[in-house]
Amino acid sequence: MNIGVGLPTSTPESNGELLFDWARRADAGPFSSLGVVDRIAYQNYEPFTALAGAAAVTRRVRLATMVVIAPLRNTALLAKQAASLDSLSGGRLTLGLAVGARGEDYEAAQVQSRGRGRRFGEQLETLRDIWEEGKIGPTPKAPGPQLLVGGSSGEALARMARYADGYMHGGGPPRAFAGAAAKALAAWSDLGRPGRPVLWGMGYFALGNGAADAGAAYLRQYYAFTGPFAEKIAAGNLTSPGGIADFIRGYEDAGCDELVLFPTVSGIDQLDRLAEVIR
Amino acid sequence: MRYAVIGGGPAGLYFALLAKKANPQDDVLVVERNPPGATFGWGVVFSEETLGALRDADYETYTEIGESFARWNAIDIHYRDTTVRSRGHVFTGISRQVLLNILQRRCFALGVRIQFERELRDLKELEGADLIIGADGINGLVRRTFGEFFKPQVAVHPTKYVWFGSDLQLDAFTFIFRRNGHGLFQVHAYPFDARTCTFIVECPEEAWRRAGLESASEAESIAYCEELFRPELQGRRLMSNRSLWGNFLTLRQESWHHGNVVLLGDAAHTAHFSIGSGTKLAMEDSIALVDALRRHRDLAAALNDYEMERQPVVERFQEAALESAGYFEHVSRYAAFDPRQFAFNLLTRSRRITYVNLTQRDPDLVRTVDSWFAAAAIGSADGAVRLSPPPMFAPLRLGGLTIPNRVAVAAGPNLETAARTGAGLLLTEFFSVTEDGRVTPETPVIDRARQDALRSAVERIHQAGSRVALQLGHAGRRGSMGPRSQGVDRPLRQGGWRLMAASPIAYTPHAALPKEMTTRDITHLVKVFAAAAQAAAGSWVDALELNFAHGYLLAGFISPLTNRRTDGYGGSLENRMRFPLEVLDAVRATWERPLLVRISASDWANGGVDLDESVSIAALLKAHGCDLVHVVMGQTVWESRPDYGRLFGVPASDRIRNEAGIPTLATGNITTADDVNTILAAGRADLCVLELPSAR
Q1: Of A249, A238, A273, nearest in space to A25 by CA
Q2: Which fold has domain A2-278?
Q3: Measured between beta carbons, which residues in chain B are less than 8 angstroms from residue A231?
Q4: Are B419 and B298 found together in one domain?
């Protein structure tokens, strides 16, 4: 299993200098990918912009959107952004897409939330065609950026199995990942896709003195829209080296191909502390 | 800390005594609306693991409880004048009254204050409490006050049930099934002391009405049930204790706490009585809550931790309870089962116990089932096969064909790769009957050249011991798609072909619009299918499988979502089935070997085919000479709501097999030999598609 790290694009008091320093060090360190999240109505950096910056200062790591909320974006523009980032980075893009869960992002983007699943399906049906056709360039190397789909519903899994290269899980304990992965494999087989889907997982961490409380506060606020569930997400924040090691082992046992751990507090020391744990 | 516990049932009392024990200086108050001696219900059941938890939490009450227990290890199943006994299940039961007395005494000894006969009208009466514990049941004050914050979902079970007690002396958990003129009634009974047992009667609502129980008094209900179960009661009587007929409610809630209020037991969640877990879960909740309060100084963190620990456990039991309840709702479906299979099916109903688990608990019963299964498989009525393979390795006779084992695999283009799995039946990839019936440019068309190539592969597979079913179909509106290695249902942009279907509706937003088939098209295609079957006969395949599923041409006729025709081929189920049955008839007329039909048992979409209709569809297929139905799900329409959970196609296979009375092949996330053996022995399918990555 590969282990990647999230870029601190949505944690409080992040800035460009930190992001690029973080990306550079991650590229030099034991990480295989850099992940970013996507929100509209939130104080975070736009995912393609942040990854383009990261692409400029890295050579090796994959650049992953985890996930971009596709229905908020025009499909042609989304295809072009993804193709551009993939091309600029030498084919390092892993494009994770999903419908997202927050109504406020749809309101802010003035996009109807109703019917978003169907529109997302149409986007998925179109994306690869755009990449293959060559009218909207740059034309990525075949078969195009690695395309992953997230979401836990049956609809989401069917879309994943139809159009994507694999599944991007939204976080939770290893058992939750294992359950979702089993369903992803079942959907893949049911739709008659040859081979198996690539499986990506994610987790949150905060290491060092005082980081646990600040990280929990960030997660509570970031997931406030889920109501009481935000507390559980905050409680799942990995705050000790042992906890991270267990989490990694659990994901590996569940068949995860790439696990990306996201910081919940800004600060370059977080990257160093994590690197120490996984080395 | 000041705790106020609402409800003096097992959960409330156990929390109170554990909390007081943990911190004697804390003030713990229990408010109970009934007097000390009043109790409702009869006995409660615990498993061994619960006992372990009770021992660790409070040894004093554990010892007392242990002395009052009834223990037993058998389950008796009374069905069709026979009794099957299964051993190796450890149960313990105790009178609810005795349990409450033990807990009350311990509470008093530790200094817990209990206020009996105090009915709270408003939670404000408990002002000053640091934490309010709602242990007041599904309809309690706490849920009535803060219900919206917990985001409850309540499911009403359709069957009627009533709790009685009896002085019948049992030494087993006892299930009784009895059919009379009013319907099928069942009993769940278990001992809780040397003289008394809990005796729950359950039946479908229609049977309950026909029996006049809707308007019956308590005494009349007792008289009716005593008469109905006279042989098993052996002259003993039923006793009532506010025993009223009701419908079980399953309560699920997203959250079990709000501010300084937290829920325990039935106030937080319920699970159908047929797995006997209510009191067990409630007391385990109490233990977890006290532990969480001990671990955290912050109240919110403690309540959150409690919920995180307990919710996954409770969800697992609720899932099992739903499966179990569903079994009892539909048990009349299995009325023709052999008692051995009936027992196996009952014992594995909740999916928590599988073939392997049951083998560990009761190897004798499983050996008996294996032996019966193997004997039935070779047509020997007396069950004389003593050293028998597990059901997965019993042969299946289908017409004149013997399939050497019960595993089928979906083969890719290379049949011989699939044969190396050792599966008894290989299902070929989709063969189209015509060029324009192909799914993708890679889809093979059955023709003479293909037939010769197939014959040599099939010959080698026969030597290796497997059998082959050739899948025949026409893609309909789901054709002209790109190769599946690049994704599924991606319309070809170049080099595509014209599509036809029941109605002109495209399969995906960007797929080509199919032409609506004319009657001439239909008549022509019926002949094409028959000709394809003749061509297949020359390839030496052992069986033919017609694909009427997954949104391809014939499925498109069956589903009202994709068939909008107003002629004789659209509208009623009979009309929608007309073309598929014409194909089946034409093929049946020329094909003498076993004939399988694959159907989507549900469209997983509103207004589409559902499980009820799929039973009627299977019955029609059977009447027209189909030998076995391959049950798959969905893909009828591009946008649907699939469920890819464990064994997702098995419930549909179970219904079709046992309601339409036709052998089935089950598909859907079946990944282990244990699953296969469980499904077969329980009579939920006759063959299983096992997911073997090496098959393709």
Answers
A1: A273
A2: TIM Barrel (3.20.20)
A3: 300, 304
A4: no
